[in-house]
Write a structure and sequence with these properties.
about 25% helix; 6-stranded antiparallel beta barrel; 8-stranded antiparallel beta sheet; single chain; about 400 residues; alpha+beta
């Protein structure tokens, strides 16, 4: 798992010149499993700004047209000069979430010594549901923050597995061997204390620490929905739709941060969400009675917690889990999402609403002016967005494009 330099880290008081507490603290981790089964690897897939079959760039019929001195403005009927995709409207509100723990431990054996970087946890997705920094995600995405002791157990297992690989022994056998684990403990020393990582990575790559406001329970134990919060104002918001109105075969898109090989993408792509299209395949209920949608959009590890949107850009659900792997491989096009009405239950528990903010209105107006070729007016809107929410991921690019269009038209 990759942690940002600006990620919030909390030093735990676990350093010991002698190493006796290390084994005692983590002995119960012998059979610990990876906590975040629905989460991603270090880096994530990138998205382009293609439409993916969902067109939403239209002028607002309820907003009066305004005079524009741009030479690029069409003086006749309003025309769409620059199509705007659903992704352009929604990407600024979709975030990546990193939750886990890391440490560096020195293992000395037979006059040899090696420092191991060990980690547990992973990453997932989320989205702003309120402009004061409230974010929706899955409980299992933040499990390492919610239950740090479990993360530390998984951390110890990671450490033992690395040692086993270097010693040429079977990790499973070593984890079942109390004497071998005690010997590892006797020859281990922290180089860097355990650090708890809990960060929200914004689409512009800024990282902010989060706190858990409301949480359910992982799938199989309850409703896998959580509300977390970062300290920020005027965040872009995705509106929750009424999931009771959703029908089978409605077109949808899923957004999030699926994990791929961490060495493939650059840092800019790391912070950009992916959008994939599909439809509502079925309406199901979990064993506890919670309603979920089965969706055909392609999602994978790291998409957990990401929004599922209708053609209006409204959230009708949240990607939560996929089908059981077959022969160790994920089944493509087979995933489930908690409904927006279930999500709204947790929003209310957090004591907040789900209203669009001033930044959302300004940004939408700017995109409409941009799509009509009214570049000067678009720039004014985008500059105001930038002033109110400096972390916005799209406005700098759009301002540059507008300026280029104006210069090119002269």
């Amino acid at each position: 798992m990759e942690s940002s330099s600006s990620a919030n880290t909390h030093m735990l008081n676990n350093t010991n010149k002698t190493n006796k507490k290390f084994f005692a603290l983590f002995a119960s981790a012998l059979l610990a499993a990876n906590l975040l089964t629905g989460c991603g690897d270090k880096k994530i897939d990138a998205s382009d700004s293609q439409n993916n079959g969902v067109a939403v760039a239209q002028s607002n019929p309820n907003k009066p047209s305004q005079n524009n001195s741009d030479t690029t403005q069409n003086n006749g009927a309003i025309a769409i000069q620059n199509p705007v995709s659903l992704a352009d409207y929604t990407k600024p509100a979709v975030v990546q979430i990193v939750s886990g723990c890391t440490a560096k431990v020195r293992f000395s054996y037979n006059d040899q010594s090696k420092v191991y970087d060990v980690s547990a946890g992973g990453s997932g997705s989320g989205f702003f549901v309120n402009s004061d920094g409230y974010i929706i995600t899955n409980v299992h995405v933040i499990e390492a923050t919610k239950n740090p002791e479990e993360c530390q157990k998984a951390l110890f297992q990671n450490y033992v597995e690395q040692i086993a690989q270097d010693l040429g022994v079977n990790p499973s056998e070593l984890l079942k061997n109390p004497e071998g684990l005690q010997e590892i403990d006797n020859n281990s020393q922290f180089v860097e204390d355990i650090q708890q990582i809990n960060s929200v990575i914004l689409p512009n790559s800024d990282a902010l620490p989060f706190e858990i406001k409301v949480s359910g329970a992982p799938v199989g134990q309850g409703k896998d929905v959580a509300v977390i919060k970062v300290e920020i104002k005027n965040a872009p918001v995705l509106k929750l739709a009424d999931s009771e109105q959703v029908q089978i075969q409605n077109k949808i898109v899923a957004m999030g941060y699926p994990g791929i090989n961490p060495d493939i993408l650059d840092n800019t792509s790391f912070a950009e969400a992916t959008i994939t299209s599909g439809e509502i395949s079925a309406k199901k209920r979990l064993a506890d009675g919670s309603p979920v949608f089965q969706i055909s959009a392609s999602v994978t590890h790291g998409n957990s917690g990401g929004p599922v949107l209708n053609s209006k850009g409204e959230v009708i659900g949240m990607t939560t889990f996929g089908g059981e792997p077959v022969n160790g491989q994920e089944v493509s096009g087979f995933a489930f999402a908690f409904t927006s009405n279930t999500i709204m239950e947790f929003v209310r528990q957090a004591g907040v609403g789900n209203e669009k903010g001033v930044v959302d209105e300004l940004y939408r107006d700017g995109l409409q002016f941009y799509s009509q070729g009214a570049y000067t007016q678009a720039i004014e809107k985008f500059e105001t967005v930038k002033r109110l929410f400096p972390q916005h991921s799209e406005v700098n690019k759009l301002i540059q494009e507008c300026q280029g269009k104006i210069v090119g038209a002269k």
